[in-house]
Write a structure and sequence with these properties.
Number of strands: 13
Strand order of the largest sheet: 3-4-5-6-7-8-11-12-13
Strand content: 25-35%
Structural class: alpha+beta
Shape: globular
Radius of gyration: 25 Å
Largest sheet: 9 strands, mixed, barrel
Helix content: 10-25%
Number of helices: 4
Number of domains: 2
Order of helices and strands: EEHEHHHEEEEEEEEEE
């Protein structure tokens, strides 16, 4: 019997078929040559749904508007304190700037509810009923050069994957993959000047906000997200301001109550 098929040695033909099968399978798994999963498909945690803020850190400064000049726990420099001491809510209202405390530098610290959805495969949308604000967290794309400053600025998101389980992440017996988990990192720039506290404590248009969102499931099944926020402002801060804010997942939209910004 001939050991040649189509003029090729049988051993070469078998090796070629095996290589083609390997390449096809690798591509189907998202390997080199295959379509990489988009940010929605590759999300290590599911942040979608309704969430309510749980106020614990700095309760006395977040649940009510502090008096003018109450800047405890903040990192304002002398210039920042002078600007804060000049706070005039009536002046903000007259100028149409009653949302200065509802920008990205403070909106997540105000009591209220979030509704997180995917606007598309590369953009997480975060609606906030307090102040009726919307944040768009865009994966991959840096802020365009012509981006206009706004209360929520321009937010660039990326997934930071947790290390794979020891053993290469093969999963449990039977082939089930072990979830890796991870963190959502968000970097926000292109901000309008706003307040880091409702009593006029300022942040400038040169501010950069870096946020890390982690999700945890408690033994009773409740889901929580913890938001660690670092605000860098070279104009009004002596050093970065770091805070932690918590949110608990809700079963539905009950309690969702969009309200306008208030300067007071």
């Amino acid at each position: 019997m001939s050991n040649r098929i189509l003029g090729l040695p049988l051993s070469i033909l078998v090796a070629t078929v095996m290589l083609l099968a390997f390449v096809q399978g690798y591509a189907q798994r998202g390997g080199r040559g295959g379509a990489a999963p988009n940010p929605r498909q590759s999300a290590p945690i599911d942040l979608t749904g309704y969430w309510v803020s749980v106020i614990s850190e700095d309760w006395e400064f977040r649940m009510v508007t502090p008096d003018k000049g109450i800047f405890e726990t903040l990192t304002l420099n002398n210039q920042g304190r002078q600007v804060g001491q000049a706070w005039d809510p009536a002046k903000d209202e007259a100028a149409g700037e009653q949302c200065k405390a509802y920008g990205a530098g403070n909106i997540m610290r105000l009591p209220g509810r979030l509704h997180i959805t995917w606007e598309n495969d590369t953009t997480l949308k975060m609606d906030i009923d307090t102040g009726t604000q919307t944040r768009l967290l865009r994966f991959g794309a840096p802020a365009p050069a012509n981006t206009q400053p706004s209360w929520q600025g321009y937010s660039v998101a990326e997934w930071e994957m947790a290390p794979a389980p020891r053993g290469g992440g093969g999963g449990a017996r039977g082939g089930a993959a072990t979830p890796r988990g991870g963190t959502l990192k968000v970097t926000t720039t292109q901000l309008r000047p706003g307040y880091v506290r409702k009593n006029g404590a300022p942040y400038s248009d040169r501010t950069t906000i870096t946020e890390y969102i982690d999700m945890n499931t408690l033994p009773n099944g409740d889901q929580w997200i913890s938001l660690t926020t670092k605000i860098d402002d070279p104009v009004y801060f002596t050093r970065p301001l770091v805070t932690t804010s918590d949110f608990k997942k809700l079963p539905d939209a009950t309690g969702w109550n969009p309200t306008p910004c208030s300067a007071r």
